[in-house]
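Researcher: Let's walk through a ligand-bound prediction step by step. First, I give you the protein sequence. Second, the SMILES string for NAP. Third, you return the three-dimensional complex as structure tokens. Ready?
Model: Ready.
Researcher: Here are steps one and two:
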Amino acid sequence: MTTNQQILLDNRPQGEAEESNFKLVQSPLPTVGEGQVLVRHHYLSLDPYMRGRMNDAKSYAQPQPLGEVMQGGTVGEVVESRHPKFKTGDSVVGMGGWQEYSLVNPSEPGALRRVDTTYVPLSYYLGAVGMPGVTAWYGLVKIIQPKAGETMVVSAATGAVGSAFAALAKARGCRVVGIAGGAEKCSYAVNELGFDACIDYRENPDIKSMAKALKEACPNGIDGYFENVGGYIFDAVLLRTNAFARIALCGMIAGYDGQPLPLANPALLLVNRIKLEGFIVSEHMEVWGEALTELGGLVAAGQLKPRETIAQGLAAAPAAFLGLLKGKNFGKQLVKLI
Ligand SMILES: NC(=O)c1ccc[n+]([C@@H]2O[C@H](COP(=O)([O-])OP(=O)(O)OC[C@H]3O[C@@H](n4cnc5c(N)ncnc54)[C@H](OP(=O)(O)O)[C@@H]3O)[C@@H](O)[C@H]2O)c1
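Model: Step three, the predicted complex:
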């Protein structure tokens, strides 16, 4: 193998992202220098945050540069090593990006981590036992701080983050209610993921009907909310919050193409003395060890059964990514490269 297929960000979206924003190219396979390793990617992770980085806008992270390989999480195997701590055949997780191979300097903090695939499949290190799982853990454990018997609600409930949130909250003795798009996702949430109830937002397309559905699913009100979507779903949840509820503001995917997401009744934050905290999981590396240990244990015990949607081949990545932004994925969205 002498070439490396890559997908670059070619131009920035105007409104909705499109396949024409990306460009597939062939590059020569890089030569491994002293202290470096060459990783062959088995799976590429597609994540909603990538949409924000496609814009040249001020945010918590630098924009994805134009003409460069799309950044992103990868799992794979070391195929050549000139680093003393890695050997050929090691299974690794890193940030290799949208390409078949990446050249990594493992001495850089967070660049590459060896993983054990004895009990946890390699791909799970991009989902339930990876960044999305830790995201759910941080929002639940550090921000919401649930107590047994409390009611937790999560939007984008069947996705990579939402499904891990359910398992973690159930393990703490909470009632867990999901909000997801479509009857199939909702029945999967209840029957496979352990949610106590799941509300189909497509059947409840406005604040009033969503608030009514939440009242039925959460008879004791809402104590903790893990927000992934924004918009009227957020407004409806606020109407059902209990005094001293906690909200982990993780994502607002309904606005990632630039749609404004005004809050209908922000006074409820005051009236209900709500704690609301936004967070970025990569800024809390101190919890990753503890979180990954718990998440790996839940997977091994069968208490967290994540689902994956797998696109085949690098060229399929742009369409799969656009699908993720429209809810076409069912669970963690991956691209399988070999
Ligand atoms: N703060 C952090 O550090 C951090 C880290 C990771 C992820 N996140 C955020 O966490 C959220 C979930 O990420 P994930 O990786 O687990 O993705 P995911 O849930 O696996 O996939 C995204 C899901 O969002 C839902 N969605 C898309 N557009 C929507 C819309 N307009 N209205 C309502 N729902 C919509 C779809 O589910 P339905 O079909 O059910 O609507 C879709 O399947 C995202 O907001 C992401 O940005 C934040």
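Researcher: And what stands out?
Model: The pocket of NAP is lined by residues 47-49, 132, 135, 156, 158-162, 180-181, 185, 228-229, 250-251, 253-254, 279-281, 324-325, 327, 329, 332 (CB under 6 Å). The radius of gyration is 20 Å.
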